[in-house]
What we know:
The protein is mainly α. Helices cover 81% and strands 0% of the residues.
Amino acid sequence: MDYLTIIGIMLPFVGTTLGAALVFFLKNNINKKSQKFLLGFAAGVMIAASIWSLIIPSIEKSSHLGKLSFLPAVIGFVSGMLFLLVLDKYINKCHVKNKKTNMLYLAVTMHNIPEGMAVGAVFVAYLTNGNSLYLASALVLAIGIAVQNFPEGAIISLPLKASGFNKLKSFYYGMASGIVEPIFAIITILLAAYLVPILPYLLSFAAGAMIYVVVEELIPDDDNYKTSLKTIGIMVGFVIMMTLDIVLG
């Protein structure tokens, strides 16, 4: 790998890290209304990312199947939701603290794995052909994902801070959710012949996991606090992530 490839596969991680760093610019305490908005924002980001970053690319990468191009997306999506369903029941039995933030962290991290593999797959084309056009496409994709990862880093670190973690620990967790991207980009480059064919299933698997967390953990309220802030947060998060995915995707 040359230095441009190394820079390219690290860019998404930088985006996540910068987003997680927002936790340092907040006040010491996040009030209940702000928590509602942040959870709604996280839900909106995850819904949009599931559609434009994961499900649609999964179908597009399966276009060679013709009318059955939807099949890998369906299989992966259902598998992702069932996996989180089983894991959620296990977490409940273990009485894990901060279940909502733990599930959110897991879903975003799982979503970053196939994204990292997608970046790796594009750089495989560049490394194989040595064409500057492939390099430009790979760098544009990496930059686009880096920008999209900025709010994703924030939706990990900010809820963790709200749940009682200190700022530094919240930042580390947010940053750590993105480290899987360069790791799996490198793995994909090294094992391209084996991993690229199953990428559509992995993309939709991550989408299923994210939607499960949205439905089970982020949208429902555990109290009777009546507010439209979570709905507004979903709207804002969805619009921002949808715009980033379409403009930079």
